[in-house]
Amino acid sequence: MRRKRSSDESGAAAVEFALILPVLILMILGMIEFSRAYNVQISLSNAAREGARVMAIHDDPALARSSAIAAAPSLNPALTSGEISVSPASCTSGQTVTVTINHSLTLITDYFGVSIPMTGTGVMLCGG
Fold first, then answer.
1. pLDDT of residue 2 exceeding 80
2. Where are the domains of the chain?
3. Which H or E element spans position 1?
4. Residue 56, strand partner residues
5. Cα(97)–Cα(76) distance, integer angstroms
6. HSE on the CB side for 69, CA within 13 Å?
7. Sequence-ordered list of residues with C-beta below 8 angstroms from that of 68, at least 6 positions apart, any chain
8. Sign (positive/negative) of CA torsion 28, 30, 31, 33?
9. Mean pLDDT, to the nearest integer, of 74-90?
10. pLDDT above 90 as % of the chain
């Protein structure tokens, strides 16, 4: 025999869903933002490594900056040469060169802030 639901329980599932829905949406948006930030961090690290490699081989800071920009084509907004620092400015054999990229990630939602500052660093041994 089936029991009938009492009238005071009708709509309980809808109320529970309405209570949990904001938490679910916040979790999904958080996963999306984290995934984007992780992707940008990997792109910055790879671009900095490529800039350091070019600087270590060619000893040309301008070429290192343009190589780092070219290595991260998917970043939006794109990298600029002002966000890339090369240290030291001249590369002598046996010395290490460091390329640091400071980029600001603009977030899709405003729940977690407007933007996040991110940094990528690459270090190579000069002279090959």
1. no
2. 12-125
3. none
4. none
5. 27
6. 15
7. 47, 48, 50, 51, 54, 79, 84, 99, 101
8. positive
9. 94
10. 75
